[in-house]
Structure formats: structure tokens, C-alpha cells
Model the fold of this input.
Amino acid sequence: MAKDDTKDAAEETPKKSKKKLIIIVLAAVLLIGGGLGGYLMFFKSSKKAAKPAPVAGVVAPLDATTINLADGHYLKLKMSLQATDKVAEAPDGSKALDIAINLYSNQSSSSLLTKDGRDKSKAQLKEQVVKAYTVKNEEEIMDVYFTTFVIQ
Done:
């Protein structure tokens, strides 16, 4: 019987160590998975709640203006400002016109005649106008629209 007892003891030892190993691996997987899930949920929700998309409000058309371009040509520009819904009344367009004059007076007609050049300059204009009309981290203007864009 002594030999039978030693065989049983030898067989039980690997089974117990395999069970312990499986439990440790499962616990590690659950901890890592739970940590990763919590991390993704926390940072995904904080990014969405950080800044809601602006809602369109009133559109304020501005008077047409003629701008001297850098190469002796002229640009007749008429634009409108798309305000957000947080603005009670139409915004004053004097800042936007000043920004447009400063931006376009340094450009040549050849750069503005291409679609890419016009789109790039419009993106710059929009960025500067939105920044100029931001009060207490609240954007008042969300877009700029060209209603007339003529180069002579």
C-alpha cells in the first residue's frame, strides 16, 4: 500500500498546480480586460462630453468690399457669417471684413484663381474669424460663406 499512496500523491500534485495556473491566468485576463474596458469607457466619454457640436443660428450677410491684391488685381468679396444658436442677434461684421482685407491683400490673383488656393485661403479666413468672434471660450461664428468672389 505504500506504493499506492505515493502514486496518488504524485498524481494530485500536477492537477493542483494546473488548477492554480488556470485560475491565475483567468484572473490576469479579467483584470487586464476590465482595466482596458474601463480606460476606454472613461476616455471615450470624456472626449464626447468635452465639446458639443455647434448648432446653426442666424446668417449675417456683409456688404461687398473691393480688395487690392498683391499683384495689382482686385478682388470683389461679399460674404456672410453663420452664427451659432448662442448668439441672440446678428454679429457685427467689421472684424470679419478687417480680417478678410488683411488676409487677401497679401495674396496674388494667381493663387486665388485655383480651387485649392481659394479653399486654403477660405479655411484660413474661417479660422481667424472664428477665433476673433470667440468670447469666453464660446464660439459665436461657426462658418463663413462667400456669396461673391470676383477677381479682375
User: Anything to note?
Assistant: The longest strand covers residues 74-84. The mean pLDDT is 83. The CA atoms of residues 16 and 22 lie 10 Å apart.
